[in-house]
């Protein structure tokens, strides 16, 4: 095939759902041995386009060409046969099966007249594929024993076992540590060397400019632009993504913190953290930074009643608190927006309005009779302020993009009017426009006197939004900095346990 011919082309793709054109006249070219970044805000149509490419959705208009020949993809199986596979942020694998079984699921190797499973051949072939990727994983290991990064490697190995020629990587690094991300970069280079055409979807601009050769931008389901990554700046890309300039990604409002609202003294947990002490004041954002396994999320769970510390003290407005369950913390005025929004933060089958009103049913319906008007007003206020993109507040949360799901969860807890709100990875998986909206809302909250704890693995976010930064390493507080007091290198060194500085 000519080097000037795309391996896969989508031309004039239009996808219509009842009441909405999800995609309109979208163009996309994928080249062998090259990475194309698919860029757009949450709700721009990226997921819908991937589902068209993998045979889950069929477009109303347009055509798909493979090696310049028109093809029809009526089912996911048809896409697999062509050689198109998608690897998502949450990999679909089987915990109780071995690595080899996961790699060959659906295409097991058999031997003999009785067609018995050829385990030696599968282990050998799996090892060959993993070796080609330069990944050291035992093919006989049970999948549940692997890290998230290793699971991604197994998913990529499975794609190669199916002889995939087009590999779609959908937010593959969202849950990876920095070291694991670097390993992932190496895997992508191996795929390029093997001539695979790669579609890379990420909200992280450093990754896009590191890995991609080409880009395609979507906005509101419409094709905007494409070209060589070397021919565009980050500022221009953002402007084309959102249709406007994002002048301030971290719109932190300078305000003088008030009195102490939360005081934590020598808080310990049997296995997750020890000797945690800090104060949080009204009108302040306190950032917690650390690497995977630092104990930040576990600490937030103790502060919000999900787990119980073994010793130490939590004082809210001068009163000692004993939380036996999250409801105790919520009643006291401490709420937590968890990192895992789909599993812990929302009932995704319910509409937006019901999710936002759920913690306040007794207040909205004091006589035990559901008041739809009150519920609607509450949902409208907070969903609108957070710029949730939806056709109606009756739309089920599961139909929203990841970023908009996160906004609904944040809105649900803000509607309780807490004194302290804990945001655990508040912008994880959210595009840059949505991030700016969440950050703007955080600034509004502190300007109104709310106390905010923000846990984030994105260092620019912590440095841009927090008044103070607490760094954790292996369950301990190892450093504390005021805004502007430390460089990124200093903070990362502390989080890595290098040159630890007592808080």
From TrEMBL:
TM region(s), chain numbering: none
Membrane topology note: Peripheral membrane protein
UniProt-listed CDD domains: ABC_Carb_Monos_I, ABC_Carb_Monos_II
Subcellular location: Cell inner membrane
Keywords recorded for this protein, A-Z: ATP-binding, Cell membrane, Hydrolase, Membrane, Nucleotide-binding, Repeat, Sugar transport, Translocase, Transport
InterPro entries: AAA+_ATPase, ABC_carbohydrate_import_ATPase, ABC_transporter-like_ATP-bd, ABC_transporter-like_CS, P-loop_NTPase
Domain ABC transporter: 8-245, 256-499
GO cellular component annotations of the record: plasma membrane
Gene3D superfamilies named among the record's database cross-references: P-loop containing nucleotide triphosphate hydrolases
Keyword Membrane found: yes
Primary location: membrane
GO terms for MF: ATP binding; ATP hydrolysis activity
Entry-linked Pfam families: ABC_tran
EC number(s) given by UniProt: 3.6.3.17
Protein name: ATP-binding cassette domain-containing protein
Source organism of the structure: Klebsiella pneumoniae
Native organism taxonomy: Bacteria, Pseudomonadati, Pseudomonadota, Gammaproteobacteria, Enterobacterales
